[in-house]
Amino acid sequence: MNANGKTVLVIGAKGGVGGTAAAALLRAGWTVKALARGQGTRPDLAGTQWIQGDAMNRADVVQAAVGVDVIVHAVNPPGYRDWDTLVLPMVDNTIAAAKAAGARIVLPGTVYNYGPDALPTLTETSPQNPLTVKGGIRVALERRLEAAAREGARVLILRCGDFFGPHAGNNWFGQGLVTPGKPVTAIPYPGPHGIGHAWAYLPDVGEALVRLLAREGDLAAFESFHFGGHWLEPGVEMAASIQRVVAARTGRQPVLKPFPWWLVTLASPFVTTLREMREMRYLWQRPVRLDNTKLTAFLGSEPHTPLDRAVADTLAQLGCLPA
C-alpha cells in the first residue's frame, strides 16, 4: 500500500546499497519500481515492481522513470570493472530520466573522490582531488549531477564510508575481512591497527535516506550530506567485533593476521578487482572520518545500529555463522 503517494525508481536494486534503499522505502510506504537486467528479482523486496531494462539504455531508464518522484542511482559495474566506459554514461541516462520525470536523483556516495589532501576529516566542502582513476570518475560523476541541478534537476548525495551489511556487494568486509559462505577462522586486516576507519551499515544508510527524502521541501536543488556511520578508532575494532561475534556463536575466536598486500600487488596486473583494491590502499593508511554534523543538525540524529549487532547480521547473511 502506498501510504505517502510517492514513487521511487531504484536503479541497482539487486545490489547492496540499492536493495537496502528499496527495502527502506517500501517500509516507509513508497511505491518502489526497480530497473534490472534479466528475470531475477530479490525475494526480500516483496512488493517491488520489477522492470526489465538496462541502465546503459537511455530509453529504458526514461521509460521506467515515468511518473516517479525520486530515482535512486545505486548502480555500479560489478567487480570494479569497466568504470571508465560505464559509470558516466549510466549517470547521464539517469539525469535525462530525472529531467523528463521531474524527479530528484539520489546518489549513495563514497570517499573515493577524496585524495590524501582532504584527510583525515571529510566535510561536505572538503576538496576533491583524488589521485586514482576511480576517484577521478567519481568526481566527474558528481560534477555532472551538480551541473544537472543547475539545469533544473534536483540531486541528493549521501556520502558514506565502507559499506557492510546484509546483501552488500563489492565491499571490504565481504571481500577482504571474511570469505562469504565459509566459517571465519582468520581475519586479514588491511591497515595499521591504530588508524581510524569509517564504516557504513547499509540498513542505517537506507533509513537515513528515507528520513532525508521525507524532508524534500527543506532540501536544496543540489544537496549533499556525510554519513558518520561507525567511526572506529582504532580501526582494528571492526576485526575485534568479528572476533567477539564469532566467539559468542561458535566458542572459537578467529585469529587476526596481516592483509596480504604483497599478493594483491603481484596479482593486480592480471586481476581488475585486485588492481582497484591496491589503488585505494591509501584509504587504509590514513584515518578517514566523515563529519556528519550537517546531517545530524538536519535530521536531529543519525540512524545507528550497535556495532556487534550489525556485524552479526552481516556475517549471518554472508553465511559465515552456523545456523
TrEMBL record:
PANTHER family: NAD(P)-BINDING DOMAIN-CONTAINING PROTEIN-RELATED, PROTEIN YEEZ. InterPro entries: Epimerase_deHydtase, NAD(P)-bd_dom_sf, NAD(P)-dependent_oxidoreduct. GO terms for cellular component: cytoplasm. The lineage of its organism: Bacteria, Pseudomonadati, Pseudomonadota, Alphaproteobacteria, Rhodospirillales. It holds the Pfam family Epimerase. Gene3D superfamilies: NAD(P)-binding Rossmann-like Domain. It comes from Nitrospirillum iridis. It comes from the Bacteria. Residues 8-170 form the NAD-dependent epimerase/dehydratase domain. This is Nucleoside-diphosphate-sugar epimerase. Coiled coil: none annotated. GO terms for molecular function: aldehyde dehydrogenase (NAD+) activity.
